[in-house]
Amino acid sequence: QVRLMESGGGLVQTGGSLRLSCAASGSIFSINGMAWYRQAPGKPRELVAGITSGGSTNYADSVKGRFTISRDNAKNTVYLQMNSLKPEDTAVYYCHSSMGYWGQGTQVTVSS
């Protein structure tokens, strides 16, 4: 079984930055695609960014140019660098493995 543990969320002002981390247990991390999703109150969960095992990335249009997803296979960790944050980025952010595992989520709140 794979366990995913997010960290790095918090409260930040508009225009600020945060870096989320997702640490995965298990040695299969390097062969899995990974992704960040988010869910705001009253809204469905949405894909924010994804990264393949080979390092190819994709982003939601709403975060392109502001967010960067990356991974360190040696540390079994995937990151989400979030810059120029906006109040509409406020949500619980979840880490997801292509094998179907989810983390518990970390809250990101952007104040206006």
Describe it for me?
This protein is an all-beta fold and 112 residues long. The protein is built from no helices and ten strands. The strands form two sheets. It has a six-stranded mixed sheet with strand order 2-10-9-4-5-6, with no helix packed on it. It has a four-stranded antiparallel sheet with strand order 1-3-8-7, with no helix packed on it. Strand 5 (46-51) and strand 6 (57-59) form a beta hairpin. It is globular.
Largest sheet: 6 strands, mixed
Tell me the radius of gyration: 13 Å
Strand order of the largest sheet: 2-10-9-4-5-6
Give, in order, the helices and strands: EEEEEEEEEE
Task: State mean pLDDT (0 to 100 scale).
Answer: 94
- Determine the strand fraction and express it as a percent band: over 45%
Backbone structural class: mainly beta
What form results from the Cα inertia axes?
A: globular
Q: How much helical structure, as a percent, in the residues? A: under 10%
Record field, number of beta strands: 10
Tally of helical runs:
0
Low-confidence stretches: none
Distance between the termini: 40 Å
Keywords:
4-stranded antiparallel beta sheet, mainly beta, single chain, globular, 6-stranded mixed beta sheet, 0% helix
Concise account of the structure shown:
This protein is an all-beta fold and 112 residues long.
What's the arrangement of secondary structure elements?
Layout: E1 4-7, E2 10-13, E3 18-24, E4 34-39, E5 46-51, E6 57-59, E7 67-72, E8 77-82, E9 91-97, E10 106-111
Parallel strand pairs: 2-10
Antiparallel strand pairs: 1-3, 3-8, 4-5, 4-9, 5-6, 7-8, 9-10
